[in-house]
């Protein structure tokens, strides 16, 4: 495999649990040395996809290659080269945090210094605490340390900052950025949009097991000369408001009602659109509380593609 070949190649993956199709003909690639975010709502199929890449599940249909290897057939060759941070920790309940990290370090030929890693991830304070007594954020930090201690070429991190306080989240982001600077490939799942926008070189958005968009955060949010206007009002909109506003704004505009007090307008990023929304409010006796023009966020992209909110 050449050095520039993808770190991960998923091709036509299908995974089912009884009647549930968890992953539905999914194809994606992850370039080496990048941070790639797999973004999607709960139940989108992110964990199942990652677990298949990590070799915990066999593809039911399609193929998966990781560092050019088959994650199950070539497991012995692959394991020393990848790091995995599982969603539920992967440690025994009675083991102390530091013992667990030292144990994992001993499984690797050239581990990082566990004292340095524990200090960096703020694990010193809980080094003697049994795993079951760690807080959610401490378990996450220990899981990350366990994934990194073997100096992997590629790390899979499932919801790395879920349950972390803001400071631990920033430390984790900085650590993942340092890994990338050292040439390590990072694949993370998240439903934090800010995390994907801030960290990822490339984002794959998954919904109901299918890939619905891929690109850099900028490619996904720029979408040409498109912007969004959020209109939040003080009392519920009159019936038929989205249709009426859309008719006023013209062909190139979409209007979606988010709830009874807010609408999202997606259309040309110009002041005329904003002025027309404002005029429509006046004509319909609607009092805006917020009328804001902004670039699209990944949340807007998801909403536009699926008609649903990512965070709901
Ligand atoms: N062990 C299992 N048995 C049965 N169904 C499962 C199992 N694991 C996942 N599923 C189902 O498969 C679908 C995809 O789940 P998956 O955990 O891969 O999604 P996810 O995007 O990682 O979600 P989350 O963000 O909640 O972790 C969901 O409908 C889920 O309920």
Automatic annotation (TrEMBL):
MF GO annotations: ATP binding
SUPFAM superfamilies: P-loop containing nucleoside triphosphate hydrolases
Topology of this chain in the membrane: Peripheral membrane protein
InterPro entries with a match to the protein in the record: AAA+_ATPase, ABC_transporter-like_ATP-bd, ABC_transporter-like_CS, ABC_transporter_ATP-binding, P-loop_NTPase
PROSITE patterns membership: ABC_TRANSPORTER_1, ABC_TRANSPORTER_2
Location of the ABC transporter domain: 8-233
Signal peptide, first to last residue: none
Keyword Transport attributed: yes
Record's keyword terms, sorted: Antibiotic resistance, ATP-binding, Nucleotide-binding, Transport
Localization annotation: Cell membrane
Name of the protein this chain belongs to: ABC transporter ATP-binding protein
Native species: Nocardioides aestuarii
